[in-house]
Amino acid sequence: MDRRTTIKWVLAAGAAWPLVPHRLARAASGEVTRAAQPTLSERTVRGGAPTAGYGTDPDLMRVYPAGELWPLCMTPAQRQLAGVLADLIIPADERSAGAAAVGAVDFIDEWISAPYPAHVRDREIVLPGFAWLDAEAGRRASPTFVDLAPLEQARICDTICDAARAAPDLAAAARFFALYRDLTAGAFYTTPVGRKDLGFIGNVALARFDGPPADLLKSLGLA
């Protein structure tokens, strides 16, 4: 699972996979247990009857400390596993740091902790996926997935990284890995480090713009 392969996955899935707003809080501070659930506010509806709701939308012009928008659900052990798995998917190389170093765990913890239905569904895939990895490590005489040697960790991932080739009894684990791979890629490639790794040149102020390069226009049959 090298970086170039990951990029291909990202580009293939990019049109269909919704990313969270880029100003979603990425800092990780404090420890919240897995059992913690988001607290929903009360909203007044027609006739004055209260109903559960999400409260007001966050102000996307400010950065929120981790856990301020909603309680985070990953335990310290899960965050450690999340970082190891993120770095297996997008490891550090000569071009950039790995996914964990640029905040992928913070991004994913925020994502699966959100109270919205799609995020709750993702939480119900990711957290059992972590438990499956630890159980699989236990079958290989290791206390947890994190305690395995990197080669053994990669071998487990190789059994679930392609749903088309995964054994029928690993379908749920393969679904977890596909989701986690997408979340990791979304976290990495929306950071300045990830954009640089892709060669993305947007979001930069220019003193002038001379139009598309001539060789690009020629290759597209536009010049």
In short:
The chain has 223 residues and is mostly helical. It is built from 8 helices and 2 strands, in the order αββααααααα.
Protein described:
- There is one protein chain.
- The chain is globular.
- It has one domain.
- The protein contains 8 helices and 2 strands, in the order αββααααααα.
- It has 223 residues and is mainly alpha-helical.
- About 19% of the residues have low confidence.
- α2 packs across α3 and α3 packs across α6.
- Helices cover 44% and strands 4% of the residues.
- A hairpin with a 5-residue loop joins β1 and β2.
- It has a two-stranded antiparallel ribbon.
Helix-strand blueprint:
Elements: H1 3-13, E1 41-44, E2 50-53, H2 76-89, H3 104-113, H4 117-139, H5 150-158, H6 171-189, H7 192-198, H8 214-219
Antiparallel strand pairs: 1-2
